[in-house]
Amino acid sequence: MNCKEALPLIHEYLDGDLQGSDSQRLKEHLISCQACHALFRQLEKTDAMVRMLPPVRVSETLTAQIMSGLPPVKKRNSWMDFIRKHPAVSVAVVFATVMFGSFMSMWNDDTNLMVKGSNLQDVVIEGNTVTVPQGHTVKGDLVVQRGKLKVEGEVTGNLIVIDGSLNLASTAHISGHVTQVDEALGWVWYKLGEFVGMLSH
Amino acid sequence: MNFVEARLAKLARNGDRNAFAELVELYKDKIFHLAYRMLNNKQEAEDAVQETFLRVYTNLHRYDENQKFSTWIFRIGTNLCIDKLRRRKNTYSLDAEMPDGEGNDYYAMLPSHEDTPEKQVIVSETQEQIRQAIETLPEKYKSVVILRYLHDMSLQEISDVLDMPVTTIKTRVHRGREYLRKRLEQEDQVGYTNPVHM
Ligand SMILES: [Zn+2]
């Protein structure tokens, strides 16, 4: 063995990776070569010295600092809790969520007022307030999402207010049902009911 | 595989703050030790520890329970320190000369070592020399040397932490060791004390 071959083997030895026969060959070289033996001892001592470096102490307040730096705990999703508490129903919810995935994403992302109906020419929209003025008639259903609905006139179909408020004046006349949906879960149930209604038609 | 840590991580992922606090207790010293040796500045090291745990916390959903938690947190911590070192280097080279025209270069701005935790106790000259030798190690050898010697990791573990082949880690350990030997030889720490007798 020459000195060039010895150096990598010295490193291997210090890594704890040197195999039997190589180990024997290195030993023989170190006995016969003063330079490599000295180098070996220097490297060995370097390793020992570096390992000697003591750990540093952390400040007492570090844990508190870390914990207080964390983002606040997210508000638990109320309908996820619902699923957890009512596993039997969750199948239906999953079904509804899958079926109406597009409605759900609309629920989460959209913050704009939405007014839906087949007959809207008698409806007055100002800001997020939707008014059916006195003496006017909306034929069919009226759906208002994320807005204030004020009915002074007549609606011949159903009235549905999603995530908004409803104000029925004394002059109002609704022929169908009045439904108010306030939460995402209610919205899912509402869409599911609509879907089931559609199936049973 | 440490099941306790995987379990704590799982609890923390589901919003259990106490479980996360336990992980902090288990790892804050180790990560601080790592960051302090990498950055050689107590304040920066504390910031790095805090940032590491923040990243761990916000990425808990990505933690794979089949992986050792220690590997994962060390990877986050090491990468963060390497980033900080690189950013520091860029900042310093950009304004190597301060605009006050007095010729203050960044050496003047380097934090003094007066307030390092080690100075609070009496430290041997040898330890001070080792500390300085590690400080001057090029970054790619530094992380390997610190993980190898100060955290007692195997080459395989370091390869997992740094996400590099074991052969690369091996080469870096060898070069790092060689570098330190030369540094300490200059300081006459590992020099010939006695002639070698065979
Ligand atoms: Zn030789």
What characteristics describe this protein?
heterodimer, A: alpha/beta, four-stranded mixed beta sheet, 11 strands, 18% strand, B: 198 residues, 0% strand, binds zinc ion
| Rg calculated over all Cα atoms of chain A | 38 Å
- Which pair of chains forms the biggest interface, and how many residues does each contribute? A-B, 38 and 47 residues
Shape designation of chain A: rod-shaped
The whole-number mean of residue pLDDT values of chain B reads: 83
By oligomeric state, this entry counts as heterodimer
Cα gyration radius of chain B (Å): 19 Å
Portion in strands of chain A: 15-25%
Q: Find the count of extended strands of chain A (DSSP E, 2+ residues).
A: 11
Which class best fits the helix and strand makeup of chain A? Answer: alpha/beta
The structure class of chain B reads: mainly alpha
Largest sheet of chain B: none
- Please report the distance between the alpha carbons of the first and last residues of chain A: 92 Å
Residue ranges of chain B: pLDDT <50 for 5 or more in a row? 96-115, 194-198
Helix proportion range of chain A: 40-55%
Task: Give an overview in words.
The complex is a heterodimer of chains A (201) and B (198). With 201 residues, chain A is of the alpha/beta class. Chain A contains eight helices and eleven strands. Chain A has helices at 3-15, 20-32, 34-52, 62-68, 78-85, 87-99, 101-109, 184-199, and strands spanning 114-117, 124-126, 129-132, 137-138, 142-145, 148-151, 154-155, 159-162, 165-168, 173-174, 178-181. Chain A has a four-stranded mixed β-sheet with strand order 1-5-8-11. In chain A, strands 2-3-6-9 form a four-stranded mixed β-sheet, with no helix packed on it. In chain A, strand 2 (124-126) and strand 3 form a beta hairpin. The longest helix of chain B is centred in the middle third of the chain and has 26 residues, at 69-94. Chain B is mainly alpha-helical. Chain B is built from ten helices and no strands. Chain B starts with a helix and ends in a 12-residue tail after the last helix. The relative contact order of chain B is 0.10. The chains are: A alpha/beta (201), B mainly alpha (198). Chain A binds chain B through residues 8, 11, 14-15, 17, 31-32, 34, 37-38, 41-43, 45-47, 49-59, 62-63, 65-67, 69-71, 73-74, 76, and chain B through 15, 17, 20-21, 24-25, 28-29, 32-33, 36-37, 42, 46, 49-50, 53-54, 57-58, 116-118, 126-127, 130-131, 134, 145, 149-150, 155, 170, 173-174, 177-178, 180-181, 184-185, 189-192, 196, 198. Zinc ion binds at residues 3, 6, 29, 33, 35-36 of chain A.
